[in-house]
Amino acid sequence: MLKFALAGNPNSGKTTLFNNLTGSTAHVGNWPGVTVDKREGIYKKGTKPVSLVDLPGIYSLSPYTPEEVISRNFILDEKPDCVINIVDVTNLERNLYLTTQILEMDVPIVIALNMIDVVEKQGDKIDAKALEKKIGVPVVKVSALKGTGLSELMARAIEVCKTKRMGKTVLEDCKISHLIGDVKLALEGQEIENPLFHAIKLVENDELEIQMHPQTVKTVELFKAHFNDELFGTDLEALIADARYKYISKHFSPTMTKKQKGIVDTKSDKIDKVLTNKWAGIPIFLAILFAMFHLTFGEDFLYLGKIFNLPALDMGEGSGASLVACFYDGAVFSPGVILFNLMGLLTETVFGWLISLIESLGASQVIVSIIGDGVIIGLSGVLSFVPQIVFLLMILSILEDTGYMARVAFILDRIFRRFGVSGRAFIPMIMGFGCSIPAMINTRTLADEREKTMTLRTIPFFSCGAKLPILAAVSGAVASLIGIDGGLISFSMYVLVMVTAVISILAMRSTTQRGEVSPFIMELPSYRLPSFNALMIHLWDKTKHYIQKVFTVILVSTIAIWLLTNFSWSWEFLMQEIDGEMVNIRINESILGSIGMFIQPLFTPLGFGAQLNSNGWVFAVAAITGLIAKENVISTFGALAACIAGGMVATEEGISEVLAMMNSVTASPTALWPAMIAFIVFNMTTIPCFAAVAAAKGETPKGKFKWTLLFWIVASFIAGTITYVVLSWWWTAFIIIALFVLIGFAIKFYNKKHPIK
Ligand code: GDP
Ligand code: MG
Questions:
Q1: Residue 202 covered by a domain
Q2: Total domains in the fold of the chain
Q3: What is the domain-level CATH number for residue 219?
Q4: Which residues surround ligand 2, an ion (CB under 5 A)?
């Protein structure tokens, strides 16, 4: 099968093109550096199938970043049949800089002039025919987003890969062309492949090249010495870069005619004056974040209920009323909550039918119980959240697609640089809001080992979608206990956990991970309207992923938990029939119960340990099952709570009902809210799910990972404890702040005495 590689600058549309050609759903984001590893897919729409590889985005073929090395080595070693070079026409010169380097390799090339839709809309023109003549390889106008020109692109690629192509350089008229020619001849003599490319890199003193061909370096030095008079003291790399740009602007740029002449403030620049403003930037970011959580979790949308003092719903019997209650009850619910309610109603109805079906088939009480209390409560607890999770992800994707998230990295860089992190590290962190796994893989692009370690450790603090049920259910319960809007609680939780991230970065930077902050250079992509199709593909992909997880990992876990809570160590079945219903009042004697009670005291500093009565182990167990998948926290809690409360409990009310039964501090469950907030904080900051742990381990040097695990455990216990203590006794905040300041000074003093070598 033919193999084509897609190469181009970051954010030039490679992944969009790749998805469009192969029908894949790889992540597309309007910021540089989303694809960090190569990705393969198959193009089937042509006469014969072609394997396509999406390479990470690069600005050059010099080994400055890991992406550049990956892409360069792929083309040199794997020898694709053709390189499809994607050029973002809205940034023609900079994109062609990479093109001039790929042209030097002995590989067939086709150039895809992407974003042609944008150019045409602006009224600019580009003469592809003229450019093709000048460059000497096929040039095709495409729009990866709209899908235009793609079949022509592939047809021409299939055409050119039939003939061999020799590398060509634009450095021919340059004053070192003789030097390059001599080195190339020497390399050809050694039968080295891609002699022109290697020759130019050797002349540039390219690090990777010097390592690869140490024996040739001497020859090159000799040649250089020969030209010494002319070249004495010149930086050859700069000279070559300059020659490339000069050639591009002299020969290639004229093929494009711009409607507007000179530099004008583009629309993007104008928007940026506000959004990335030194003072307004952060407040705007927080406001957007708040709006996002209000839309997803707000129980009183736009505070209409409060403002207009709306009446509560007069609930009649019947399903019509409960449908209305999904939208309104004394306040209009926000879209996220409505989606949650509707999904809850749906799962409740469907599962209700299922139970009556099973009962009518004459299944035994035990079967009904395992399905009803074990499986269904666990699954529906998680399933109801799927639309709400997807809704939140949709807002995040829109923010990412428009290009706003790239600005966030930029704004945050300005502030957090002095605390020891660069804006580049925020890209994986913000990606962590979706799922930690791709975020952890993305840290590969962080060249500085220390910065990478710190980023890997803090990614779980940017809560992924799977943690949302914990947040929504528990903060919903707290909201109903103390009468604060659920959206506000969720928002504060996210902010609190991000503050924890900042504090732990500070702590690491001044202790185990001391060092300089790496520079951060990122080109801000222009603002774009998000593409509806791409958004839907992305969301569908996520929805599928969550539903798959519900019916695999979570299903198995809930069954295991049902078994462990209904059998004792001596394998005695603990359920008994009372008033014709199967209940388990001896749950504390179960296997899970006894393990839970054993570990329960560990959580005393966090408020959900020994303070609670013997049922309180449910919290501890739920936190532990979360290590398998974070959704398990709520499904476990739901299933166990149902067992304790003896019957079906809807998530939110269930929690406060169950709390009353766990509480031995006071009679009122209200007293438990600080512990519940600490429970959220603990789950948001502790060891992430297995899959994320594996991803993080893969990105960590051998033997170092144990420290990261330890970090998560310590950080989550400290964060949870502080939360509980301060919320229970507000004045302790002063003691804790004083303690932090004291420790801070002590570390500063120590570091001054022991400067980094
Ligand atoms: P990559 O970094 O090169 O993989 O680029 P992506 O495929 O992630 O795309 C970057 C951004 O450009 C996304 O917001 C895309 O929606 C957008 N984009 C890609 N191709 C086109 C195009 O042909 N026209 C327009 N208008 N936008 C595009
Ligand atoms: Mg990409």
A1: yes
A2: 3
A3: 1.10.287
A4: 15, 34-35
Residues 84 and 209 placed together within one structural domain of the fold: no
Separation CA 17–CA 143 (nearest Å): 8
Query: What is the spatial distance between Cα 644 and Cα 667, in angstroms, rounded to a whole number?
Result: 17
**Greatest pairwise CA separation for the chain in angstroms:** 103
Query: Is residue 51 in a domain?
Result: yes
For residue 34, the ligand 1 atom closest to its alpha carbon is: 2
80 CB contacts (<8 Å, ≥6 apart)?
Answer: 3, 4, 5, 53, 74, 107
Q: How far is CA 36 from the centre of its chain?
A: 12
- pLDDT for residue 588: 85
714 found inside a domain: yes
pLDDT of residue 650: 45
Q: Are 138 and 225 contained in the same domain?
A: no
Distance 515 CA to ligand 2 centre (A): 30
CA distance 73 to 110: 19
Q: Is 191 in the same domain as 151?
A: no
Domain boundary at 242, 257, 272, which? Answer: 257
Distance of alpha carbon 687 from alpha carbon 690, whole angstroms? 9
The answer to whether residues 94 and 203 belong to one domain is: no
pLDDT value at residue 143: 95
Q: Closest residue (by CA) to atom 12 of ligand 1? A: 13
- Residue 108 confidence (pLDDT): 96
Please give the pLDDT value at position 545.
86
Using the mean position of ligand 1's atoms as its centre, give its distance from the Cα of residue 534 in Å.
10
- Does residue 43 share a domain with residue 16? yes
**Strand 581-583 vs strand 576-578: parallel, antiparallel, or unpaired?**
antiparallel
Kindly give, in sequence order, each residue whose CB lies less than 8 Å from that of residue 410, ignoring residues fewer than 6 positions away: 276, 423, 522, 524
Give residue 658's pLDDT.
67
How many Å lie between the centroid of ligand 2 and the Cα of residue 316? 53
Ligand 2 centroid distance, CA of 230 (Å): 43
The pLDDT of residue 724: 95
Give the pocket of ligand 1 (CB within 6 Å).
Answer: 8, 10-16, 28-30, 34-35, 57, 114-115, 117-118, 143-145, 401, 528, 531, 534
| Confidence (pLDDT) at 474 | 85
Residue 109 lies in a domain: yes
Strands, E assignment, 521-596: 576-578, 581-583
Q: Which residue ranges in the chain fall short of pLDDT 70?
A: 29-36, 228-233, 260-265, 314-321, 645-669, 757
Distance of CA 32 from the midpoint of ligand 1 (Å): 10
Q: Please, which residues bridge with residue 5 across strands?
A: 53, 83
Mutate to test the pocket of ligand 1, among 19, 27, 28, 150 (most ligand atoms within 8 A of CB): 28
Q: Closest ligand 1 atom to the C-alpha of 144?
A: 23
- 319: part of which helix (H) or strand (E)? helix 319-324
| Residue whose tokens read 């309180």 | 616
Residues 452 and 494 in one domain: yes
Whether residues 99 and 187 share a domain: the answer is no
> CA–CA separation, 566 vs 576, rounded Å?
10
Considering the domain architecture, whether residues 26 and 155 belong to the same structural domain is answered as yes
Residue with CA at minimum distance from ligand 1 atom 11: 30
Given 257, 286, 320, the domain boundary residue is: 257
Domain with 498 in it = 404-525+688-753
| Gap from CA of 27 to ligand 1 centroid (Å) | 11
Please report the pLDDT score of residue 649 as a whole number: 47
- C-alpha distances out from residue 13 to 86, 156, 670, Å: 7, 19, 53
Nearest atom, ligand 1, residue 528 CA:
14
Q: Where are the alpha helices (DSSP H) in 103-176?
A: 116-121, 128-135, 150-160
Whole-model pTM above 0.70? Answer: yes
